[in-house]
Design brief:
Blueprint lengths: L8 H5 L2 H21 L7 H8 L4 H11 L2 H13 L12 H37 L4 E6 L2 E7 H26 L1 E2 L13 H11 L2 E2 L10 H27 L7 E2 L19 H22 L10 H30 L1 E2 L1 H8 L8 H10 L4 H18 L8 H6 L10 H7 L9 H7 L4
Parallel strand pairs: 3-4
Antiparallel strand pairs: 1-2, 5-6
Length: about 425
């Protein structure tokens, strides 16, 4: 797996070159539709297509004067097309081009992100199976609870990734709509058939109803979906950061030859990739908030959303693309230490069996309250002794408790305190998730 982020495709989606290329496609397709409808003379669309092109720097130069990007673009295209350029943009408004283009760009970006999500799911699938039966301590509130397996941690992430794929597919579908409906969405100067034609050619669905723009709830759904995916990656990264703590060290980011952890302390191996993922997730959530603020606009539109989208759409898709790349590498090369997991399982001298014993004593006739008191008092003795020279297994304290031994034998205690019991339903959980 490559270590550096070297994929230029996502950034290229948001380049001026790609944006203007899509703008030109929209205008040329609209001309074709207008010609088919008899609005412009036969042969006009072909004549325009034969000459139509643009120069990015020239467009930007014209925009310095016009202070209007679409007018600058159309002016530059007209410089190449000549007289037939009067039929370009006929009956359309700028947002017909801008919003339809943004839909194409978000669809392109979403499809790239889906590819990466599917790669992450594949890596999680492999590593979940690799550690399917690798016992480790489960923690609730940061405190040792009962045994689980490291494979189940990976399986949980795998299933969340699968849900994120479905979420993103829905979000891409929601935002992939075209709009060519005129100044306030009434098609007063252009037929709805133009919108239908252009949308179909661009792989979009025509918007059912619009104003001067496509409603921004669609974009908010897309950006909040990206934020949710980023938060899932943050969840993975946060777990790995905890597991890499010196006192825990059950898993660790891959540390490459020649890598340095600290300018001051040569011994450091820090979870920098996981920390980077966590930081970028915050950015995605902030951008999603801005996207929701964009939904409520004045009447048939205002321009307050436009400047925001020019930042949050490229930034969020590029950031998540990078985060997915980091996470795929992180999981693929993650160093896992089963021996340390076993050491940590043994850290509390068997206290993880407290629920097993509670249930056993209640099954033998004790009230839940009485059984809880019996188990807890011996658990607290074990807990206190675990930090002293008197350290010994939980089962030994239970065996020394006369009340406890009225209900159970020492052999039964030893049988109950077997960590492999945690594995009894692991196969069923994996099968239910289809990871086999």
């Amino acid at each position: 797996m490559i270590q550096r982020y070297t994929r230029p495709q996502m950034g290229a989606i948001w380049s001026d070159e790609n944006k203007y290329r899509i703008w030109l496609d929209i205008e040329l397709l609209a001309c074709e539709a207008q010609e088919q409808l008899g609005v412009i003379p036969t042969g006009t669309s072909a004549a325009i297509r034969a000459k139509a092109k643009f120069d990015v720097q020239r467009v930007l130069e014209i925009e310095e004067t016009t202070k209007h990007d679409v007018i600058a673009f159309l002016t530059n295209v007209a410089e190449y097309v000549g007289e037939p350029a009067r039929f370009i943009h006929l009956g359309m408004t700028s947002s017909d081009v801008l919003d339809t283009c943004l839909s194409v760009q978000l669809k392109q970006a979403g499809e790239l992100l889906l590819e990466s999500l599917k790669r992450l799911k594949t890596v999680l699938h492999r590593r979940a199976l690799e550690f399917k039966y690798t016992l480790c301590i489960g923690r609730t509130h940061g405190i040792h609870a009962e045994p689980t397996t490291f494979g189940l941690k990976m399986l949980l992430w795998h299933e969340e990734c699968a849900r994120n794929i479905i979420r993103l597919e829905r979000a891409v579908e929601a935002v992939a709509v075209g709009m060519i409906s005129g100044a306030v969405g009434t098609y007063e100067h252009i037929s709805p058939k133009v919108e239908e034609y252009v949308s179909e050619k661009l792989g979009l669905q025509p918007e059912s109803v619009s104003t001067q723009i496509i409603s921004r709830d669609r974009h908010a759904e897309f950006l909040t979906t990206l934020a949710l995916i980023g938060t899932s990656l943050e969840k993975i990264a946060t777990e790995i950061r905890h597991l890499q703590k010196t006192e825990v060290l059950e898993a660790e980011e891959y540390f490459s030859q020649g890598q340095k952890g600290s300018s001051a302390m040569p011994h450091k191996r820090n979870p920098i990739v996981s920390e980077r993922i966590c930081g970028l997730a915050r950015l995605l959530r902030g951008n999603a908030h801005a996207a929701m603020d964009n939904v409520a606009l004045w009447h048939e539109r205002d321009i307050s959303h436009s400047s925001v989208e020019r930042v949050i759409c490229p930034d969020s898709t590029i950031a998540l693309d990078y985060m997915l790349h980091l996470t795929i590498n992180l999981i693929d090369k993650l160093l896992v230490y089963p021996e340390t997991m076993q050491r940590n399982l043994d850290l509390t001298c068997g206290l993880t069996f407290s629920q097993t014993l509670l249930l056993e004593f209640t099954s033998r006739g004790l009230s839940r309250e009485a059984a809880y008191t019996l188990v807890q008092r011996n658990a607290m003795k074990t807990w206190e002794a675990s930090r002293t020279a008197e350290r010994k297994p939980f089962v030994e304290f239970l065996a020394a408790d006369a009340e406890c031994m009225q209900y159970i034998t020492r052999q039964e205690l030893d049988t109950l305190c077997d960590m492999n019991k945690a594995l009894r339903n692991v196969d069923a959980i994996f099968a239910r998730c289809g990871v086999v």
